[in-house]
Predict the 3D structure of the following.
Amino acid sequence: MADASCVHIGAITTVRQAKRRECAECVKMHAQWVHLRTCQECGATLCCDSSPNHHATKHAAASGHPVVASSELGERWIYCYPDDAFAEY
């Protein structure tokens, strides 16, 4: 999955998949989400920026975990927050 423009994406050798189809943080607060993203460093599945709470972006900023993968069925892409880089797999 080498992407010469992003060392974070280039470091991903196996894409982590969501273990559950829900945002762990939204569940805790009884909130709704739109789409899900899975952190490629720790495996947390959280909501996207189209969702009211932006948990995936907040997680990336707080943890320093740079890359997420779409957890939506039929989508096969990853995204790096610091480099604003995108790659399909």
